[in-house]
Structures are given as structure tokens and as C-alpha cells.
Design a protein that fits this description.
This protein is an alpha+beta fold and 425 residues long. It has two domains: 148 residues, Alpha Horseshoe (Serine Threonine Protein Phosphatase 5, Tetratricopeptide repeat); 257 residues, Tachylectin-2, Chain A (5 Propeller), CATH 2.115.10.20. The chain has eight helices and 23 strands.
Length: 425
């Protein structure tokens, strides 16, 4: 009898040790996934999370993270719903990051479920999920309450916007600039002879540059080596007839605006703007007007309307950028405004915003400068240019009658996000 008990005890010890080893290995896999998620590499993170989910199918935290990954992958966002629905079945305020032993999801699962419903045009379900999330917020969390109330309202606005679609023509600009990667942030010089865009390569986001010669675009060249970048520079403007490139360095913690000069053969290493533009806060997406006199950018510096606001700076007598001025409450809202383009002698503004009359997330807007130096009420560019997902980048050309965008069209194009030229009718 004692021998049997001893044998059973030894088997139990061996099993516990094996389970401990497996858990340690799975925790390492989980941290690998967490690393990719932190840098928004959703495809790689998803691979590890799904592998773990097969072993731990009742881990609601894994379901939550799988849902977030699917929301970040074009063409797969509909798959987020079932995982986030599962995550909300067991969510709570007490939450520990970075541990596979955390089996419950955080309350923010309701927020992301609302986003998943909204992105997939299930607006009534989105409203209910947002309301569930709102119930978890503390009374003094006024910023989040304001934002969630806005998200609830835009679910109704989205239906109205979709009832009055805009008419436009859309043309994929072709395989010279589009491939199996995400291709985004298309910008063109005011003379139409220089073009740049970004492409998500395996380990970094690259900047490609092309010039028009004899009415044909040259093969795009990756200019990251010229810029001396680690892949964290994001382009926003080709100024000075394409001889100056403006970028922002974004490391998910802070952002500053940089520039680079073109000598006809290569680009200079990117340098930060000095003076009044960069601060210890977030500054990004600078765009310079055709005559080079004004620079518009986004910042969350103190004194704004809330979140990222749009600011404008004018060159002073010594060629430096002057003190930036907030564009004011007609343009800026309590939420984020970004990706501004100022054209037609600085009289027409295109930008994206989470506020205004909106379909949810970011929408694209335009506004006209009035005779009294104020701005007209921003006009939503309309559905289906704007969707229920984030729409953030519209590079206007032809006096705003056309523009370049980057979108994913399911079953069309060359890969993930492709660059298109759209023409309003």
C-alpha cells in the first residue's frame, strides 16, 4: 500500500513539474505576443495569441487580445466580434498586465466590442456595447465619458451620412506604388512632379520616393538610408516643389516634426525643426503651403481645445517659424484633429477628426477660410469616402477636386492598404 502511495506521489510531482514547465513556456509565448501587440504588429501578435488560445480556451483575456489584433488587420476586422463578445462575458476592473495567469478581460473589452460592431456597420449593437462600457467609468472620468457619449451619438449620425452618399470616381494608382504590403501616406509636390509614400515592410515602415520624368513616374526608391531613420519617421508633406520633405518621428510616446532636403540625387539626414514648433508634447504631421509662408500641424500642447488640435505658424522676417496659433473651436473639438492639408493660397483646409458630424472613429473633413479670417463649419467628405472605420489621410490635389487616399478594398487591389486617386463628381 505504501509503495502505491509513493508511486502516486511521484507521478503527481512529475505532472506538477511538467505543468510548471509548460506554463513557463506559455508565459514566454504570451510575452512574445505582448511585445508585438505593443508595437502594433497585430499579425505576428495574433499568431501567438491564437496558439495559446487553443490551450487556454477559457482565458477571456486572450480572447480580448485576439479581438484587438483582428481590429488592427485590414480585411479581418469582422473576425474581432466573436472574440470580443466572448471577452465581455467575464470582464472586471481588477486587471494585471503581462501575465498569462490573468484570465479575465478588462472592462475596455466593452469599448473595443463597440468599435468592432461600429466598424462592421452594426450600429445598434455598437451603441449598446458603448453604453455597457460607460457604466464602468467613474463619475469623475469626464474625458472618457464625453468621448463615449460622442461615440454613441455618431452611431446615429452614421446612418444619416450613409443615406446621402457622395459621388466620386476611384482609381487604384497601380502596381508601381502598390504591392502586397500596406501602402499609405501618399503625398505629392505642388508641381505634381515628385511623389512619396510609405510601405510597411517586415521590420519597419519605409519611405519611398519617385519623380516624374517625360510624363512617367520613376521606380520608387526607399530613402530610409538617406534619412538615417530607424523606421519611425512618417511623412506628411513635400514642400518647396518637392525639395523639402516634412516628417514626424513617432515612437508611440512622443512625436516631433522633422525635415529633410533633396539635392537632386539624395536626401539629407532628417533633422528636427527648431524654434516654436517642437515642444515636450506631441507634434506631428506638418504641412507647408505652396508659397512656403505657413505651416500647419497637430499638437496636444497645453491651451488647446482637447486632444490633438490644429495649429498654424507663419514665417517671420528672418525665415523662422513664428509662434503657432490654434485654429480655434470651429475646427478643433474636445477630441483629436490631425493630418491637415492647407491648399489654394491657404484658403481650403482638409483634415481628419474624431469630432464634428462623424461616422465614428476618424472622418475626413474640409473647411473654407471666410472673408472675416474665420473658418467655415467643417463638412464631412461623405460616405463611402468616409466609412465607419478610421479614415485619416486625404492628400488633396486639383484644388481639392481630387485627392490621394490609402484604403483597403476587400477583394480588390494588390494586397492590404492600397493608394487610390479619387475624383469628386
Amino acid at each position: 500500500m505504501n509503495r502505491i502511495l509513493i508511486s502516486l506521489f511521484l507521478i503527481l510531482i512529475m505532472n506538477v513539474d511538467l505543468l510548471s514547465q509548460n506554463l513557463k513556456k506559455d508565459q514566454e509565448t504570451f510575452l512574445e505576443a505582448e511585445y508585438f501587440l505593443m508595437f502594433e504588429d497585430y499579425t505576428d501578435a495574433l499568431f501567438y495569441y491564437l496558439d495559446l488560445y487553443e490551450t487556454y480556451p477559457e482565458n477571456y483575456n486572450l480572447a480580448y487580445r485576439i479581438g484587438i489584433c483582428y481590429l488592427g488587420i485590414p480585411g479581418s476586422k469582422h473576425l474581432a466580434i466573436e472574440y470580443l463578445e466572448e471577452a465581455t462575458k467575464n470582464s472586471e476592473a481588477s486587471y494585471r498586465e503581462g501575465s498569462l495567469r490573468q484570465t479575465t478581460a478588462p472592462y475596455t473589452a466593452w469599448y473595443f466590442l463597440g468599435n468592432a460592431y461600429r466598424i462592421n456597420y452594426q450600429f445598434e449593437k455598437a451603441k449598446e456595447a458603448y453604453k455597457k462600457y460607460r457604466e464602468t467609468l467613474l463619475e469623475d472620468d469626464t474625458d472618457n465619458i464625453l468621448f463615449i457619449d460622442h461615440q454613441i451619438n455618431v452611431c446615429d449620425d452614421a446612418k444619416s451620412i450613409m443615406d446621402n452618399p457622395v459621388k466620386f470616381e476611384e482609381e487604384n494608382i497601380g502596381e508601381r506604388f502598390n504591392d502586397e504590403n500596406n501602402n499609405f501616406n501618399p503625398i505629392i509636390s505642388s508641381d505634381g512632379l515628385r511623389f512619396a509614400y510609405m510601405s510597411s515592410l517586415k521590420f519597419y515602415d519605409a519611405v519611398f520616393f519617385s519623380t516624374k520624368e517625360k510624363n512617367r513616374w520613376t521606380d520608387p526608391v526607399n530613402i530610409i538610408p538617406d534619412l538615417k531613420s530607424d523606421g519611425d519617421l512618417y511623412i506628411s508633406c513635400l514642400a518647396d516643389n518637392g525639395n523639402t520633405l516634412y516628417l514626424s518621428q513617432d515612437n508611440n510616446i512622443e512625436s516631433d516634426i522633422y525635415y529633410s532636403k533633396y539635392d537632386g540625387e539624395k536626401w539629407s539626414p532628417a533633422k528636427p525643426l527648431s524654434g516654436n514648433i517642437n515642444t515636450s508634447y506631441w507634434e506631428s504631421h506638418a504641412f507647408v503651403t505652396e508659397d512656403g509662408s505657413a505651416l500647419i500641424f497637430s499638437s496636444n500642447r497645453p491651451g488647446g481645445m482637447g486632444g490633438l488640435d490644429l495649429y498654424i505658424s507663419y514665417k517671420n522676417g528672418v525665415g523662422e517659424w513664428g509662434e503657432p496659433v490654434n485654429l480655434g473651436p470651429v475646427i478643433n473639438t474636445p477630441f483629436n484633429e490631425d493630418r491637415a492639408f492647407l491648399i489654394n493660397n491657404a484658403k481650403q483646409l482638409f483634415f481628419c477628426s474624431q469630432g464634428h458630424y462623424n461616422m465614428g472613429g476618424f472622418d475626413l473633413f474640409r473647411s473654407e477660410k471666410l472673408d472675416n479670417n474665420n473658418w467655415s463649419k467643417p463638412e464631412n467628405l461623405g460616405y463611402p469616402i468616409n466609412s465607419s472605420d478610421d479614415d485619416v489621410f486625404f492628400m488633396p490635389v486639383n484644388s481639392g477636386r481630387s485627392g490621394y487616399i490609402s484604403v483597403h478594398r476587400e477583394g480588390k487591389g494588390f494586397g492590404k492598404d492600397d493608394i487610390y486617386l479619387i475624383k469628386f463628381k
